[in-house]
């Protein structure tokens, strides 16, 4: 009589195995569509951190650097070609923070959602970007327009019928027709991201919320032909995402190229 095998059937994940694929930087020339706006920073509003990060040193200014403000920004991105397949994203940068022991201040992403667990896992592991999972619904435009979408709705997986972001997109009569070259390389200041270590969910093998042990430095490069569009609606609810009054004129890049690389400290 043969001994029973302790090896799981082929194709069955072993207990303790990492279900995600490590996809390290760089992520280069990702074909994307980008919606973005910037404004004068006015502090760190409610909803700027997910609960996991809010209860960790990541959100503790004494541990991870004092908030200095300057400029805040929101970006919504549709990635069509990436090392972890297509996904959507929304992020919030409340402003600049001190980088401890470096004597510099840099922008920091404090709240970000993506539509894929592979992106959640790798964004956290590679760059300390505090990604969480959300549902994205882009509504196609029924008009001949420079913008392919009439709007977007973003919701939590637990409450798919209660979007915390509901935005409408529309062209601006004069400004949306002409396009202009855009590149982050035109920005005359260092926009590199420095991010403190992330906390880890006890269920990270299910939700992708992996933790890290040290600071990471990264750089995002965006280029393409941009247009000015009008955006209105609800941008956040003060819980799942900051309740921001950033409607008005945004920049839209229809055929953007985005690269995200790790920078050695």
Automatic annotation (TrEMBL):
InterPro entries referenced in this protein's UniProt entry, alphabetically: ADC_dom_sf
Gene3D superfamilies (alphabetical): Acetoacetate decarboxylase-like (2.40.400.10)
Stretches with biased composition (Pro residues): 1-11
Compositionally skewed regions (Polar residues) per UniProt: 12-21
Top-rank taxon: Eukaryota
Renumbered residue ranges of the record's region Disordered: 1-26
PANTHER family the record matches: ACETOACETATE DECARBOXYLASE
Entry protein name: Acetoacetate decarboxylase
Annotated source species: Helicocarpus griseus UAMH5409
């Amino acid at each position: 009589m043969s001994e029973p095998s302790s090896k799981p059937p082929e194709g069955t994940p072993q207990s303790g195995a990492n279900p995600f694929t490590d996809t390290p930087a760089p992520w280069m020339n990702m074909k994307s569509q980008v919606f973005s706006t910037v404004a004068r920073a006015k502090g760190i509003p409610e909803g700027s951190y997910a609960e996991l990060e809010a209860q960790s040193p990541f959100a503790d200014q004494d541990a991870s650097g004092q908030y200095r403000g300057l400029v805040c920004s929101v970006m919504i991105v549709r990635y069509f070609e990436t090392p972890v397949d297509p996904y959507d994203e929304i992020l919030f940068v409340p402003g600049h923070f001190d980088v401890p022991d470096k004597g510099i201040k840099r922008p920091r992403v404090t709240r970000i959602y993506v539509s894929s667990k592979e992106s959640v896992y790798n964004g956290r592991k590679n760059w300390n970007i505090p990604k969480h999972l959300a549902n994205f619904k882009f509504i196609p435009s029924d008009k001949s327009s420079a913008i392919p979408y009439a709007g977007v709705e973003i919701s939590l997986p637990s409450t798919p019928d209660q979007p915390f972001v509901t935005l409408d997109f529309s062209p601006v009569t004069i400004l949306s027709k002409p396009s202009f070259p855009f590149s982050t390389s035109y920005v005359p200041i260092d926009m590199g991201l420095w991010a403190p270590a992330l906390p880890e969910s006890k269920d990270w093998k299910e939700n992708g919320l992996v933790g890290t042990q040290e600071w990471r430095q990264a750089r995002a490069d965006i280029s393409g032909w941009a247009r000015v569009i009008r955006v209105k609606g609800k941008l956040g609810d003060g819980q799942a995402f900051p309740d921001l009054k950033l409607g008005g004129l945004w920049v839209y890049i229809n055929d953007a190229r985005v690269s995200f690389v790790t920078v050695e400290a």
